[in-house]
Amino acid sequence: MVAMGRRGFLTTVGAAVPAVVAAPALGAGGGGRGGPGRVVNGVDRLAAADWSVLSGQRVGVVTNPTGILADLTNVVDAMAASGKVDLVGVFGPEHGFRGTAQAGESEGSTVDERTGVTVYDAYGADRADFAAMFREARVETVVFDIQDVGARFYTYVWTMYTAMTAAVDVGARFVVLDRPNPTGGTARGPMMTAGFTSAVGQKEIVQQHGMTVGELARFFDGEFLEAETGGRLTDLEVVEVRGWRRDQLFADTGLTWVPPSPNMPTPDTALLYPGTCLFEAVTWSEGRGTTRPFETVGAPGVPYGYAAALRAQRLRGVRFRETYFVPTFSKHLGTVCGGVQVHVDDPDALDPVRLGIAMLVEARDTGGGTFDWRPGDPPENRWIDKLTGSTRVRDQIEDGAGVDAIVGAWKAELAAFVERRRPYLLYPGKGRR
Fold first, then answer.
1. Does 361 reside within a domain?
2. What DSSP assignment string belongs to 369-383?
């Protein structure tokens, strides 16, 4: 393919609307739900254009093992091997650039043996830390290429947001190499509220945002950056996914799944995670230390009736199997736990946030006294409030509310978010029901 110049590859508009790669430049997008081979990630489109978007710039890359091309080469390795990119730094998020660290950990700062590029430890970095790293590396363009899983409390999108604030401070371009949202384009769940923001939810978005990282970057730039930094990115560019629609899940794309973190082994894990991650906030295990985290939940002493009670609810899209397991790390290490494994049998019908609430409510009612909230830091601040965005869900569960009442309480704020995000969306389709 003949390399295109940057202006031939990008549609550039004023600062009020971020620049976006025009999908037709490298072929028309797909119609309908599509099938294997129809979806092309942003990184592959950029590589096919001989990395021309990055020409003449000192480039820093925020990525991890999910930043792969279609041939499974890591984006940093491909950039370095091409000789076309002036690569001056890599910024590793939670779990690290090469992905060797567990939850809540990073790999530290080092020099990458393969490429000779300095790798900066960006996990937990704040705006000032990122700005200092960008200045040290003399970064002119920041590239973000990480596969997200679509939940507010997955930390990669907040690494991106913080890097964006620092890019404003240092005057750097910001380029997002977009990837599909594996849960599709439907938004679900409660809104983050002031006073409950944290590293697992820094700004006001809903629990399952239904946006790609490129769309989120546009949303963050348009809705939050000016209030946070006093300005916006002077040059935000999204290299769009070709052929993806909002009603597609990861299984529809034909792409290769690389676990975005050690406890996200399969696309089914990602489908359930926006709901079952709520078990991180209780005394039950969310399945860490098993081969099926976030699909397996339970605790010592959970009655066998828990699985039967969940089956009786006839929750759409899933089936429940009674299971027993011994975590090899994390909660209840080395102790026999009873509980359930959630099996996805109809992804189109699944509402993972409602599922997570239903499982918590049933744990309250039939858990045999094993259910309690996990303390936060300080202990009186419950972790569940950080995950759900307020005390409301916890208050309702403690007060004996049912699933319909809890889910219904966020209907208005969810509808408002869906409207607020609309101008920033890039891909066709209405999402899933």
1. yes
2. T---BPB-SSTTSBH
